[in-house]
Specification:
Distance between the termini: 40 Å
Oligomer: single chain
Mean pLDDT: 84
Shape: globular
Structural class: alpha/beta
CATH superfamily: Response regulator
Strand content: 15-25%
Helix content: 25-40%
Length: about 180
Amino acid sequence: RKIMMIHVFVKVLAILSLTFVGSLPYPSNVVIDGDLYIVVMFGLTENGCRDMRLYPFQYMEAVDLALEYVNRNNEQLVGFKIGAIFLDDCSSAEHGLQITKVFYEGVLEVNDSTGARIDPDRVVGFVGSESSDRTMKVAEYLKTVKTALVAPFATSPQLSDRTRFPYVVRTVPSDSRQ
């Protein structure tokens, strides 16, 4: 239990560093090392990336626990570890789109714990965001790089359009079915 609390504390400190990036063109990121990566994009901040939001930490902890379980118990991943890159979309569809683009273009350099740059080719998918409009913006770009997006909160019926959003999978039903 004590080790888990230390783990959470270190993660919180890393996330809190996001609040001190006001002068940077893009927010910082947090990485859980792996051989392949899932990008997790939520609004960790809002109001122009200035104000910290607290409840997305629960999502981060859920992702961390899921990755620990999968990496420890999956015989199909022998020799591979799945990691995560947490990106802050600042609760903005436009910012989410921009941060995704600059990551894939190499402008936003994301590094693992050794300082090595993480190549976007090692990303196997995205998870996020917390709204349909943010999800759709990012999904439209991810279509161009043929990357899957799991949308845990997006309920817009537009996301059911498999032509427009062929790489999106939802975990909640469309508004048209609720």
